[in-house]
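Pipeline run #58 for the internal structure catalog. This entry was flagged by the ingest filter as a single-chain record with no existing model, so it goes straight to prediction. Upstream metadata was stripped on purpose; only the residue string is passed forward. Reviewer on rotation: M.T. Logging verbosity set to normal.
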Amino acid sequence: MTTTTFEAAVTRAVVKLLLGTRKLKLGVAITAGDALGIEDQIKMGRHAVETNADVLHLGFRTGPAPALTDVAVFLPRDGLCHIQTGCSLWLSKAGNRGRVMPQPHVRGHFRLAPSEILHIDGKPADDLSEGMERASAWLARQVMCPDAVYDAAQCHIWSQAA
């Protein structure tokens, strides 16, 4: 699996994890590419404010062992962009709710809705580390499953968005 194919497979799986069968609409974008340095984060934040679109960026390590290394959230609100980097994916015990968890010291978590990323006060009741392990295992199964089916209209992948 090439790096680009890997990024596309993981990105589609993340959309499925966070949205289920719903489709993305105007107001939110999911981008994938290299992990963003501070200058790229600023550019992405400015772009989010200019377009008034929430952004979920999936940062990847490339090379012989490609991997998802960072999840970042960009939320333009009132002319400013709130940025959370170093986020993790989380999955409920029932396997039906995927969420984005910010770093431990940050309040709340994020839920992807079709047209926005919502900040939810508080953390899920489940054990956070177990939920992150479930999400990681779920993504690995989706990416390695040769018969995984995705709705092509569900998401558009923008590589190297910054």
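catalog note: The longest strand covers residues 80-91.
catalog note: Residues 31 and 57 are 5 Å apart (CA to CA).
status: ready for reviewer M.T.
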